[in-house]
Amino acid sequence: MLVTGSSSGIGKATALKFAQEGARVVINYKSNIDGGKEVVKEIEKLGGRAISIQADVADPQQVKKMFIQVVKEFETVDILINNAGLATAKPFLEITQKDLETEFGKNFFSMVYCAQEAARLMQKNGGRIINMSSICGGVDSSPCTSILTFTTAKAAVSMLTKVLAKTLAPKILVNAVAPGFTLTRFWDGMSKKDEDELLETTLTKSWVGADEIADAFVYLTKSDSITGQVLVVDGGYTINNR
């Protein structure tokens, strides 16, 4: 299996969780080489098998080369977790063409490129593709409006998931996970006051853990009946803010 953007954060938690489930894992990173190596070491300590591959998944040529390496090492890919992404806050009137290209490249086009390569490998024996969406792709609340390009890209990911589920059925099942406010480095530097105000908008009054998102990915890969769905894991934020 392949987890994009898995040298830290949710991607790392997901890679470790699948390793515990017995999967052979490909760690992907763009620049965090030390993080990639560390995740491989942690998986090996668990008795699992893993490799790390450097590739910018927003670049289709690098994606192709990555999949060639994966096939050489593991012969195929049966599970793809499209996790890599980027969120940058910027006022709407200041957003440039470069901003759009960068954010859609990381958050949407990368998933298309990786899904294409994975689907080619999965056509014969089947597989699972799970995309990382976001609650911001389905709500218009204030925490999401400040990251407009990310929000619109994630909305595209949710629709891509549904379209691919129809396109690739019945052998390849395609789903997405839409996390809420997950405790990652994205929130570093937030004041205690802002944190309390943010979490007050959820029903659980707490952060979503990276391990909980990883659990959602594992759950979706084990089902033979779920496809075309976006699984929301947000501590009740969405229902609390309708």
Structure description:
The chain is α/β, with parallel strands linked by helices and 242 residues long. It has a single domain (2-240), classed as Rossmann fold. It is 48% helix and 14% strand. The chain is built from 9 helices and 7 strands. It has helices at 9-20, 33-45, 60-74, 97-122, 142-145, 148-168, 192-199, 210-222, 237-240, and strands spanning 2-3, 25-29, 50-54, 79-82, 127-132, 172-179, 230-233. The chain has a 7-stranded parallel β-sheet with strand order 3-2-1-4-5-6-7, with helices on both faces. Helix 1 links the parallel strand 1 and strand 2 (25-29). Helix 1 (9-20) crosses helix 8 (210-222) and helix 4 runs parallel beside helix 6. The termini are far apart. The model has no long low-confidence stretch (mean pLDDT 95).
What is the class in the CATH system? Alpha Beta
Estimated share of beta-strand residues: 5-15%
Low-confidence stretches: none
Largest sheet strand order: 3-2-1-4-5-6-7
Tell me about the largest β-sheet: 7 strands, parallel
Count of all domains: 1
Radius of gyration: 17 Å
Mean pLDDT figure: 95
> What sort of overall outline do the alpha carbons produce when their principal axes are compared?
globular
Number of helices: 9
Q: In sequence order, what are the helices and strands, one letter per element?
A: EHEHEHEHEHHEHHEH
Q: Indicate the percent of residues in helices.
A: 40-55%
CATH superfamily: NAD(P)-binding Rossmann-like Domain
Number of strands: 7
CATH topology descriptor? Rossmann fold
